[in-house]
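Supplementary Text 2. Reproducibility record for the structural model of the 172-residue chain.

All settings were left at their defaults, and a single model was retained for analysis rather than an ensemble. We include the record here because the model underlies the residue-level annotations in Supplementary Table 4.
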Amino acid sequence: MATADFPAEVEPTPTEQRQDQRLASLPEIYRQKYERLALELALGLDDADSVFERNGYTSEQAVKLIESPAFVALLQRTTEEVKSSGLGFKMKARVQAEELLGHSYEMATDPYTSGAVRADLIKWTARVAGLEPKTGEGDTKTSGGLTLSITFSGQAPQTVVTGREPVLIDQQ
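Retained model, structure tokens:
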């Protein structure tokens, strides 16, 4: 005996059969997955009517879903997760950055915008795009500067001041 959810050659276990029966007895509204819808509503990037419409719900279907205790519980849990993780702020900032990218480009390429503003926009764009050079932690190499080692025979150690800190020159 095979159910519609299993191929004819694979016989479901009694546990799987019971689960199929439970799912079949649930109203249709509870058999679908609503996590994405709840996440979109919890983020609040758009008004609820637009979110429901984008996901293919009529006004009546949306009202029925909002009145569903299971969906309300899912929405509350998702909202708490969004608030506690800071995801809402990050997502809104990301959307805002996407929207402002066109304005940033216009300002960065406008010859009448001040040079300092244009330079900041270029740096910001490079940073956001991941084009900045990476600096490694614990990297002891320095860029630029001069390292000079001089050894004098028979003289006391001398201190040479470079651009950063005094360096003690030892005769050994």
